[in-house]
Amino acid sequence: xxxxxxxxxxxxxxxxxxxxxxxxxxxxxxxxxxxxxxxxxxxxxxxxxxxxxxxxxxxxxxxxxxxxxxxxxxxxxxxxxxxxxxxxxxxxxxxxxxxxxxxxxxxxxxxxxxxxxxxxxxxxxxxxxxxxxxxxxxxxxxxxxxxxxxxxxxxxxxxxxxxxxxxxxxxxxxxxxxxxxxxxxxxxxxxxxxxxxxxxxxxxxxxxxxxxxxxxxxxxxxxxxxxxxxxxxxxxxxxxxxxxxxxxxxxxxxxxxxxxxxxxxxxxxxxxxxxxxxx
Length: 279
What we know:
Number of strands: 9
Radius of gyration: 20 Å
Helix content: 40-55%
Mean pLDDT: 90
Shape: globular
Strand order of the largest sheet: 7-6-5-8-9
Number of helices: 10
Low-confidence stretches: 134-143
Strand content: 15-25%
């Protein structure tokens, strides 16, 4: 994976007409927790082997540039802060809902990572029994990614749809379920309503701990804000008096990429200014 990532990075630079020697800094987005103390990625359960020791050293050797390896939700939060829905927010959280569940938190323009890089890993919050209990992570079932993650992730959407009677052919993926809901399928609309209610628990947790002025909903599932925000906000009103503004991502699928660009540009500027100051 390291070699393939480096090969792709170099090919993209070549397509842009850049020699690789012109690249100052590289940012790698990754699921899981990037521990700044150990330089390892932990809990990236969907990428077997990615958490092995020496990952950063291998990436640095292959790329031969400045390097940041950062959680994808954190990068999406930086992207939304720089160019999207989070612009001007003093404190906001980006809630990533897709294959996994996580949050990136930006306070006063700075990413908040916590003591071990795990701030925002709300997928590990307990959630038993589940609202409308069904699907992966049900009570008594070991959670692979974490109780709340297993309750709201893309796999959970598919499992809930099938448990409510949607044919397997119509609910192969979460994308299928949301497409059916937009087409007016009543079962799919019930799934969306329950998914929104489950996500309200994640927003309520963020509100209680962080008191953000804004929560941005994104990720493969979260990008369906046109369907999810209504039931999410209705359930949130019943859960807690602490109700931040919740909006859909302004950057969509490009949030992580644009966050990586913002972080790399910041790092490159720092290097250039440091070099000039030393000179």
